[in-house]
Design goal:
mainly alpha, 6 helices
């Protein structure tokens, strides 16, 4: 009778590791973006754009600057959430526990384009390793 160690392929391990790496990079990106948002909340009156004398009423400041905290929230929070799910899915892939959660984690790694695509391919090709 074969041991379970002989049945393991490197594809699932690689998919889990890639998912964890992509998730960690997404969490770092999300924390940086949310840190910028907190910085805008603390120093709310700071305007990163210089006054542009040839633009009447400095419309760049009026139209773009108020949207920064909103866009930072829209980008930062989903990046954190997807990163957390990608790391959990990568851990489940390494432990060979739940194919569905491992594949969901690999799919949540897709914003890190190359790592995410490879993670999805490797995890989906290794579905048979979850059936024990």
């Amino acid at each position: 009778m074969e041991s379970s160690a002989n049945r393991r392929s490197g594809l699932l391990t690689a998919g889990g590791v890639l998912s964890i790496i992509a998730g960690a990079s997404q969490i770092i990106f999300g924390l940086i973006v949310l840190g910028l948002m907190i910085g805008f909340a603390i120093w709310g009156g700071y305007n990163p754009f210089p006054h542009i004398p040839w633009m009447p009423d400095n419309r760049l400041e009026i139209t773009v600057y108020p949207l920064f905290p909103t866009w930072l929230t829209i980008v930062g929070v989903p990046a954190l959430a997807l990163g957390i799910v990608a790391i959990i899915g990568g851990i489940y892939a390494l432990r060979r526990k739940s194919f569905g959660l491992s594949l969901a984690g690999a799919m949540c790694a897709l914003p890190s384009v190359i790592l995410g695509i490879l993670a999805v391919i490797f995890v989906s090709l290794s579905k048979k390793e979850f059936e024990a």
